[in-house]
Amino acid sequence: MSTIALRLAVLAAFVALLWVVQAVNWLLGYALTPLFGLVPRHLYGLDGIVGMPLLHGSFGHLMSNTPPLLVMGGLLAATATRALAAVNAVIVGLGGALTWLFATPAIHIGASGLVFGWFGFLLARGLIDRSPVTLGAAALVGALYGAMIWGVLPGSVGISWEGHLFGFLAGCAAAWLVRTHVHAPRMREVERR
């Protein structure tokens, strides 16, 4: 199995896990939400930094996060190297910590912070690396999901715009802090041999 195929399989397994967690949470009357959701500035809500991306408020909520998770996750799988774990750790850890520190009092849940983190990472990495592959990925993400940038502003009641904002900022930080290499340069090296 190629590296990209393995990464795509991990992405598919992660999205499938989100659906399993949602089904279990629904069957339990959403009992997992207060247990593992992020509650700002409360110690019992600190585990929500990791739990927040796994929980959703409804099947519709998860359905709205699934396509961008697959598209942006697929672009990450196709263009990034071994740094994916570090990129995701920065997005989830920093984005979640900032949400825990500064968000409004509520139970914050959903993978949209991760979606916005990947969005910020892909855009910022294109500008930082300026390789044809990363610029192409940034342009594609910008064309497909550019309008979602408005999700970082306060808007609809019940939507954690703070999770979106801090996820986006964490993704930008990850692009600057974690240097990733695209597959294209290695492919060119192989062709020269």
TrEMBL record:
Keywords annotated in UniProt: Hydrolase, Membrane, Protease, Transmembrane, Transmembrane helix
Transmembrane annotation, as ranges: 42-62, 97-121, 133-153, 159-178
Protein name: Membrane associated rhomboid family serine protease
Pfam family membership, one: Rhomboid
Subcellular location per the Swiss-Prot or TrEMBL entry: Membrane
GO biological process: proteolysis
Record-level GO cellular component terms: membrane
Domain spans labelled Peptidase S54 rhomboid: 49-179
Alphabetized InterPro entries for the sequence: Peptidase_S54_rhomboid_dom (IPR022764), Rhomboid-like_sf (IPR035952)
Keyword Metal-binding tagged: no
Main location: membrane
Gene Ontology terms for molecular function: serine-type endopeptidase activity
Membrane topology type: Multi-pass membrane protein
